[in-house]
Design goal:
Layout: H1 3-13, E1 25-27, E2 35-36, E3 43-52, H2 63-81, E4 84-94, H3 100-121, E5 124-132, E6 136-145, E7 161-165, H4 170-174, H5 185-195, H6 201-206, E8 211-216, H7 221-232, E9 235-239, H8 247-250, H9 254-263, E10 270-274, H10 279-287, E11 293-300, E12 304-309, E13 312-313
Parallel strand pairs: 4-5, 9-12
Antiparallel strand pairs: 1-2, 3-6, 4-6, 7-10, 7-11, 8-10, 9-11, 12-13
This protein binds adenosine-5'-diphosphate (ADP) and magnesium ion.
Length: 324
Amino acid sequence: MAAGEFELINHYLKPAPDEILPDSVLLGIGDDAALIQPSVEQHLAVATDTLVADVHFPATAPADLIAERSLRVNLSDMAAMGAEPQWFTLSLTLPSEWDSECRRDWVATFSRGLKACAKQFGCVLIGGDTTQGPLSVGIHMLGQVPPAEALRRDGAEPGDFVLVTGCLGDAAAALAVLDDDSTDSRRDYLRDRYYRPSPRVAEGQLLRKIASSAQDISDGLLADLNHICQASDVAAELDLDQLPMSAALAEAGESDAVRLATSGGDDYELVFTVAAENMPALAMLQAEGKLEATVIGRILSGAGVHCQWQGDVYQSSITGYQHF
Ligand code: ADP
Ligand code: MG
């Protein structure tokens, strides 16, 4: 790391002297490695996701939004495991053609977004790496989950209900309006859903003893639910008329909306399965306003994801098998 970058990290990413680190962080940014003290009798959940400019976000996007998106995507992996996010490291690759002023401005804005988001979700930056090359942001996230309570992909059983949190398709619909500078409430809403997805961290933890399987939706509902089906050796049958969609998505028109909600990625909602006997416990959480989820189908024996829409079989290249 070049001397200039050392200053940048110290100034913008290292916690300020008056910031209080959690007791679990014995040694944070500044040494060769951080030292953390995980809780006794908790399992560590470990995930990493790298976002590359012009692949996972537009290179010219505001740096605070790039930070938010990078952290939220990683938090979503913790949510999908039912884990409580705790610590993370950050691998920053900054373009060598940026001059020192440009780097400083970018890192200052980036760190503002990162710190606000980390605070909101109760996790802390403990180290990282800074290098030069095409702009990219890698985050390595560590969380904790009680033994045997993690939400895995391989627990779905025939008869289980299939549910999703929030609503689907907004992030995919946002791609069409990301470069549009006009402000209107629909564009602003979709853009926010793309850059600031809502990782369902609290919901994931509440589902630990209720869901039989879970995963977050990063590649699209059908593709991601198919991962659960493959890992659990089961099939899923979905009624796409039940898909939760925002008013902003509905404006795309019925058939585009259902395509974006089933095949568009980047929503970072949870798709999960619940056995019939656990549905009352889920209904209780919903009644208490702790979790918003919609039943969209059932698990069956067999393989693949099968969909019906408006009384007909819904064909999608991602659904795999179509037996209806
Ligand atoms: P080393 O050469 O030993 O790998 P570095 O000089 O790269 O260490 O980093 C010095 C310290 O700054 C380390 O504690 C490292 O974790 C931290 N650091 C470097 N880059 C970042 C970053 N992007 N975010 C947070 N901490 C960072
Ligand atoms: Mg070292």
